[in-house]
Structure prediction request, 339 residues.
Amino acid sequence: MRAIIYRDTGGPDVLQLVERDLPTPGPGEVRVRVAVSGVNPTDWKTRSGATNPKQFPEVTPHLDGAGVIDAVGPEVDQSRVGQRVWLYLAAAGRPTGTAAEFSVVPAEQAVPLPDEAGFDVGAAIGVPALTAHRALTVAEDGPRRLRPGALDGTVVLAAGGAGAVGHAVIQLARWAGATVISTISGPDKARLATAAGAHHVINYREGDPAAEIRGIAPDGVDLVAEVALGANLALDLAVLRTRGTISTYANDGGRPVELDVRQNMVLNTRFQFLVLYTVGPQALAAAVEDVAAAVRDNALPVGAEHGLPLIRFPLDRTADAHRAVEGGAVGKVLVDIGP
Ligand SMILES: NC(=O)c1ccc[n+]([C@@H]2O[C@H](COP(=O)([O-])OP(=O)(O)OC[C@H]3O[C@@H](n4cnc5c(N)ncnc54)[C@H](OP(=O)(O)O)[C@@H]3O)[C@@H](O)[C@H]2O)c1
Prediction:
């Protein structure tokens, strides 16, 4: 099979296209013929050596993907052969990510993909939607599970709603019944966040975004899903309701975070930091189930018309796909692999 690998961490040029033997699924594992591989910022950060230490002599990157199960290992129901699936965390703690014609993963990390959902949806949901689910289910008074109606009556602020995770936050929050406000940096991204389902979009770079958000939600927002805590903390606290939650999945821009303890005591702020790798099996399983239900409801569509333009590369240009994500591509970067 054709596979992308890297042996040393570094820039995108460490990625090579090679021929490898077909991997054999072990006990409890399935082998998936990958149709589309999804690229996330964590993939290039891991490849660069900046974040997770490299654990294997040779690594095929990418956590997300979608395809069809073509073989199962011992202890896995044989009837799963031929099943369309989406994959999550394929390359987490394993050397067999989705940037290859075949990927082997534990059976539970291959989730059935309904016939109506394309492989593009399947390859776009793993990291972004599971992260968004966690961000939306950590409020003190809020639900731990998402379903239609679960967030009725709540106001969610999705920071950076034109980003891949921000997009999933908007879609899942809308599906669950929340009123969704999204910040964006300009008119193009405003159109994308609106197409994703945001009720209100606010340009955080001009005017008085706090006053605009307070105008929409006079009692404050219940939950902020935050991509740039250092840059946005003052805004978040200016619009958060008492006992509201700030779920932080990134600090893009790298601005340091300085907490005014008294201000947060008075607000009874709840801060929840999250990273998918250590979210724990219970939260992960809940997220997978709820995201799968949202996919069945066609609540997580992708493409420019749904607020997430698709930017495609063939397998032999995976390095360019990484460059695109690293360069801040607007939308979802996908690598086309299978038929
Ligand atoms: N914790 C986790 O488990 C987890 C999971 C997934 C991703 N992440 C991290 O989350 C970040 C985003 O990932 P992604 O895939 O969504 O990337 P992305 O598609 O590039 O989106 C990032 C978005 O953040 C926006 N943004 C940047 N600074 C902002 C600010 N100050 N206020 C509001 N919006 C801002 C950007 O737009 P503008 O700059 O135009 O505003 C952009 O739309 C990355 O750092 C990634 O590594 C973490």
In short: Residues 150 and 310 are 29 Å apart (CA to CA). The chain has a mean pLDDT of 97. Residues 40-42, 127-128, 131, 159-160, 162-166, 183, 185, 189, 204, 227-228, 231-232, 249-250, 252-253, 274-276, 328 surround NAP (CB under 6 Å).
